[in-house]
Specification:
242 residues; alpha+beta; 6 helices; flat; RNA-dir_DNA_polymerase; DNA/RNA_pol_sf; Reverse transcriptase domain-containing protein
Length: 242
């Protein structure tokens, strides 16, 4: 990943903690990979969470980067576009085919700077670990990933690509050029080493559910499941119900 946009820098001064000895926690092997976490050196930064064998026993460190107070202090530095506007552009483009691409654990593909990895430290009964990659839950993870995708697909956005955070849509005006559009997209993603999840990718579909809306040949329609409560609402019978 190009470090010009693929790194996150945190500056937080907090208390210290004592590193616990032990081996790799068996539970972490199921949810993470060796490249995602590591054992930090002795540090002055406290871990955000302390987990015990009892799932109900979780202690939070208020001085840590992972605490809710610190996450809420961070200003969102990139404002997202309204979802309905992003969805409307797909229809206005006049797409004959749509392709949906999903990055494999997209947030975890952005690496943290080595000097800031210990700021994400967390403690388990086995040892202390820290993230080597950007983790979920931080206020600016979505904004950081959005900038990453904009840098990767800068030449295509507005032409045959629309990106909304971790959703990538390839717009093909004519089915004949579908392969060419996908080839250019894959080349750009490969240049920045972005990995896709093939199980969640769809290619060359005439339409479907996009960002909570249905993009069809006749236009944009709301998701019936999301408006069911409004459609099934009974008309008011009394003045107080208005």
């Amino acid at each position: 990943m190009d470090t010009t946009f693929g790194s996150v820098h945190f500056i937080i001064d907090s208390g210290g903690f004592l590193r616990l000895p032990g081996s790799v926690a068996p539970g972490l092997e199921k949810t993470t990979t060796p490249s995602m976490i590591s054992v930090p050196p002795l540090t002055t930064v406290g871990p955000p969470y302390s987990f015990s064998n009892n799932d109900e026993s979780v202690q939070r460190n208020p001085n840590s980067i992972g605490s809710r107070q610190e996450r809420q202090k961070r200003r969102r530095d990139l404002h997202y576009e309204a979802i309905d506007r992003a969805a409307s552009r797909l229809y206005q483009y006049g797409c004959d085919r749509l392709s949906y691409l999903d990055a494999y654990s997209g947030y975890n593909q952005i690496k943290l700077k080595e000097e800031n990895q210990e700021l994400t430290a967390f403690i388990t009964p086995h040892s202390v670990y820290c993230y080597n990659v950007m983790t979920f839950g931080l206020k600016n993870t979505g904004a950081t990933y959005q900038r990453c995708m904009q840098a990767c697909l800068e030449e295509q956005i507005g032409w045959n690509i629309e990106v909304y955070i971790d959703d990538i849509f390839v717009k093909t005006r004519n089915a004949v050029t579908l392969i060419d559009d996908l080839r250019v997209t894959f080349d750009n993603l490969d240049h920045y080493k972005i990995k896709l999840n093939p199980k969640k990718c769809f290619f060359g579909v005439p339409g479907g559910q996009v960002l909570g809306y249905f993009i069809l040949a006749r236009g944009i329609e709301a998701n019936p499941l999301k408006i069911k409560a409004v459609l099934d609402m009974e008309p008011p019978k009394y003045l107080q119900q208005v």
